[in-house]
Amino acid sequence: MNLGKINLITPPDKLFNNNLSYLLVKPSTKIKMQFQTILSSIDHDLNVFVYDQEESNIEWLLSVAHQVDEIIIDIDNCDSTTKMFISFLLAEQNVYYITNDDLTPWGLISKNRIYDLDWVVKNLQGDDDEEEDTDEQ
User: Fold this and answer.
1) How many Cβ atoms from other residues are within 10 Å of residue 113's Cβ?
2) Total domains in the fold of the chain
3) Strand partners, 86
4) Spatial separation of the C-alpha atoms in residues 33 and 26, rounded to whole Å
């Protein structure tokens, strides 16, 4: 099995290609480790944009958010500036969020709350099945 090429992109850089792309917004160490484990078994090219703890380039974040296929936001790790834009991002269908905060009604904006990244594995496996179908034709 050949592993795919993983492109890791951070502000202020951008990458424009046809690879499946993910944006991780303020991921905790746990989320990073879980995503890394998932990436270790991927056999196709993938872009991973990371807006990490020390980042404050909101313009980059919003720009990249319109470019990627899936967005994962770790709300509990967001600083106050980033949190001001969370509701805007959550309104999009391709945005999934992780939080332990049961008081803030994020669910009124989006039903895409997740508790781990298991769905990413299913999503990526689904893409592999589509590619195999295309190759067979």
Assistant:
1) 13
2) 1
3) none
4) 13
What's the half-sphere exposure (Cβ side, CA atoms, 13 Å) at 13? 9
Whole-prediction pTM: 0.86
Query: Does 31 map to a domain?
Result: yes
131 domain residue, yes or no: yes
Residue 22 domain flag: yes
CATH of the domain at 79: 3.40.50
Phi, psi of 41 (to 5 degrees): -115, 10
Of 5, 17, 11, 4, residue with least CA distance to 67: 17
Rounded alpha-carbon distances, angstroms, from residue 92 to 66, 105, 135? 9, 16, 32
**Phi, psi (deg, nearest 5) at residue 71:** -125, 135
pLDDT, tens only, 42-86: 888 999 999 998 888 999 999 999 999 999 999 999 999 999 999
Rounded-to-integer distance, Cα 107 and Cα 43, Å: 34
- Please indicate, yes or no, if residue 1 is contained in any of the structural domains: no
